[in-house]
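Okay, is this right?
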Amino acid sequence: MRTLLTLLLAAPCLTAATPCANLAQLTLPHARIAAAIPVPAGAFAPPNGRPIPNLPAFCRITATLTPSPDSNIQVEIWLPAAWNSQFLGVGNGGFAGAISYAGLVEAVRHGYATASTDTGHQGGGTDASWALHHPEKITDFGHRAIHEMTVQAKALLTAHYGAPPRRSYFSSCSNGGRQALMEAQRYPADYDGILAGAPANAWTSLMTNAARAMQATAAPANYIPAAKLPAIQAAVLAACDLADGVKDNVLENPATCRFDPATLRCPGADAANCLTPPQVSALNALYAPLRDPRGKTLFPGYSPSGEAETGGWAAWITGAQPAAGALHAFSSNFFRYMVHSDPAWTIDRFDLARDLPAARKLAPALDATNPDLRAFHARGGKLILYHGWCDAAIPAQNAIDYYQAVVRKMGPAKAQQFVRLFLAPGVQHCGGGAGAHTFGQGGAPQGDPASNMAAALVRWVEQGTAPERIVATRPGRTRPLCAYPQVARYRGAGSTDDAANFDCAR
């Protein structure tokens, strides 16, 4: 059996390319290659999925990685026949639990060698039952699986093509944004360019804040039904929409909005266009940050605006009924299976003074909040963060807080050399919403860097051109996304639906 070392020693000659089928014979550290199969151009049917048409020819490798005795990390590595000499790592949303075939498909269609992993377990996006009494699986999910996937994928593609990738990129959103920052912080040699969207990097604080918010709205009297969300959003827009000089149902910077939920208090009987006193209290709790028992702010609250949009509060926070929003499932399962190892635990038992310290014990495995990116910067790495201002899953202020921490740690001049943050007004979690929400996020780099954030990252890495303005689109509107702390300012003339009539300014 040929060893990987033999292949890599021959790689500099660029004549040691290994045929796809022969890759299954390679010996890799703590890994077992189950199959390496040439897939002809045309339709491909992923496991338990519909056939995907019009794919180029590629080599499909399936493998199991076991960096610990309790690890069972499933990985797929796709190597296109027409390779663009670059590698693209694919991330996961939620608690992961599945290979991201959509990400693999997009990558190979644009010539990238690519890889995806289930991070060591199988299950739905809100399912954390796999973590019960499995600390090594929590470590795999937290950071180890993506790194191991990346290392093994690069080894296999080097063996297959006879050369290592010229550049390596990672692009993902949500938990994938957390994975992205974990790579920059823990494994700075893995990727040259990283695109981190709506990062759930402060995982333990995020879940603690979600549990607090869910507890605040769980009682029947406090619950805010979906029918009242349009009235809340309308009141927010009435109070703050014109603050940026343009009436467009989008807040350029919700952090400057001083909306008071008490203005919606019902003057008489309860109705869909007003809030009862307990609901006013609940809404204040949702907008408020998480604070420790001494009053210190630990994590931001949810931004005003976008409450009634598709993919907004009804999906994540309030739900169709009490305890039915996605954040309730996420936070409950986090504390149930990861923190307390108690399948019977419920949100009504949440106690901040007790549960916050318990959650923080998992921070070394799960949190990607370290602002010290000296190693990533030293190797020439570039990092772009982006976040939708109306994100109902992860408050956008969290991305600002991390960016500012990096600037403080690295110094403003050095930070400008390798990191940018873009905030997307009116945009929900990883996309959608009333704002211009299409800007090439979370996928394979392609197209014009002026309107594709992933392509802008590639240009920054390969040509040294730092992105300062990305044009986002939605039907009937284009708007610039400006590198933080700049915001888009209307010039005062021309259509407010045309990005050409806006400047980026502090």
In short: The chain has three domains: 1-165, 169-201+368-506, 205-364.
